Amino acid sequence: MMWIVLICASFCELGFTVFMKLSDGFKNLKYTILTIITVSMSIFLLSVAIKTLPLGIAYAVWTGLGTVFNVLFGIFVFKESREWKKLMFMGLILVGVIGLRLSA
């Protein structure tokens, strides 16, 4: 169950970074408010997950999945580059996340 909470926290991390980008340096009030809400949700969900999951593993999975989600969102929504190096290293992050999950 806590792994699902942790994945939800990672999706909230995606939300807050996307909203932060759209806030244009916190000049757009709507996206600034959404940034604050989603960063708060992400940290809250992470705090719930680390009650039972090992701290180091939970934090690494949270940031790792958040990174992968952001890279994919950037590629598909913001039309950022799809360089093979970016995709390869993103794959390595996923391998690390899966490895940490299996070791917990």
From TrEMBL:
Protein family membership: Belongs to the drug/metabolite transporter (DMT) superfamily. Small multidrug resistance (SMR) (TC 2.A.7.1) family.
Domain of life per record: Bacteria
Predominant location category: membrane
Alphabetical list of PANTHER family matching this protein: GUANIDINIUM EXPORTER (PTHR30561:SF0), SMR FAMILY PROTON-DEPENDENT DRUG EFFLUX TRANSPORTER SUGE (PTHR30561)
Protein name: Multidrug efflux SMR transporter
SUPFAM superfamilies for this protein: Multidrug resistance efflux transporter EmrE
Membrane topology: Multi-pass membrane protein
Extent of the signal sequence: none
A GO-annotated cellular component: plasma membrane
Keywords annotated in UniProt: Cell membrane, Membrane, Transmembrane, Transmembrane helix, Transport
